[in-house]
Write a structure and sequence with these properties.
45% of the residues lie in helices and 14% in strands. The chain contains ten helices and nine strands. Strand 3, helix 2 and strand 4 form a beta-alpha-beta unit. Helix 3 crosses helix 4 and helix 4 crosses helix 5. The two termini are 31 Å apart. The model has no long low-confidence stretch (mean pLDDT 93). It catalyses: a 4-saturated-(3S)-3-hydroxyacyl-CoA = a (3E)-enoyl-CoA + H2O; a (3S)-3-hydroxyacyl-CoA = a (2E)-enoyl-CoA + H2O. InterPro entries: ClpP/crotonase-like_dom_sf, Enoyl-CoA_hyd/isom_CS, Enoyl-CoA_hydra/iso, Enoyl-CoA_hydra_C. It comes from Pseudonocardia hispaniensis.
């Protein structure tokens, strides 16, 4: 695996992916994208992984897409059709946190700009640091938003605030990000906050956790769809050994020891 992305195990059940190109503010270059895809696939295939944390090396979470390649090809190569063919796989690669079965927590240690904001929004939880800013300056760069910005932003902050961010390109800092729903919490160390939350999630029952993430994805279709899913998923968890362990641990007033069975 390329050192453009580092995959480590900071604790039991925890996996940490670090975007490791601080010299370019962790911009989504072709190299970084390929390394990201490899790291996410490794996590996807890891049966012991219960929670993934994503962060950036240096003082930036992710400065967004690297569009320098637009100026490197022949003029005929930059056509809407060819760009679309390139964009869709790029979007899907970086939005992979939505598709992972386990929860993904973003430690947004610095600016999350454009596509970098969308990467943070693709994670289930986001923790901000003192230098964190979220921004969607697409139209001020002369381009339409991409990578799900027009869906992910309204999901997180509501339509009115999404319009504000997309139209003005304003930078939203840590405390306001919490108030708006862009971040779960803010503190002196975003990674420490994210790992603390991840450790708590990792102690939960793995089957129930994965089914809860799947249920939350389905719930956007409405209450009826959510009830149909829960009527299937809850009986599955009730047939697990972990359910009995959880009940017994509660009775004995001790931490449960879930095994994913």
């Amino acid at each position: 695996m390329s050192d453009a992305v580092l995959l480590t195990e900071p604790g039991p059940g925890l996996r940490l992916v670090t975007l490791n190109r601080p010299a370019v503010r962790n911009a989504m270059t072709a190299e970084l994208t390929a390394a990201w895809v490899d790291a996410i696939e490794a996590v996807r295939c890891d049966d012991e992984a219960r929670v993934l944390v994503v962060t950036g090396a240096g003082n930036t979470f992710c400065a967004g897409a690297d569009l320098s390649w637009l100026d490197q090809g022949a003029a005929g190569d930059v056509t809407p059709d060819r760009l679309r063919d390139r964009m869709l796989p790029f979007y899907r690669s970086w939005l992979a946190p939505r598709e992972l079965a386990i929860p993904v927590v973003a430690a947004v240690n610095g600016p999350a700009i454009g596509a970098g904001l969308c990467l943070a929004l693709a994670c289930d939880l986001r923790y901000a640091g003192p230098d964190t800013v979220f921004s969607a300056p697409f139209i001020h760069l002369g381009t339409h938003g991409g990578m799900g910005a027009t869906w992910l932003l309204p999901e997180a902050v509501g339509v009115a605030r999404a319009r504000d961010m997309l139209y003005t390109g304003r930078e939203v800092g840590g405390q306001r990000a919490v108030e708006w729903g862009l971040a779960t919490d803010v503190g002196d160390d975003a990674l420490a906050l994210a790992l603390q939350a991840a450790e708590r999630i990792a102690r939960a029952a793995p089957i129930a956790t994965r089914l809860t993430k799947a249920g939350l994805e389905r719930s956007v279709a409405g209450l009826a769809e959510a009830l149909q899913w829960e009527a299937l998923a809850q009986p599955v968890t009730m047939a697990t050994a972990d359910l009995h362990e959880g009940v017994q641990a509660r009775r004995e007033r001790r931490p449960p020891r879930f095994t994913g069975t």
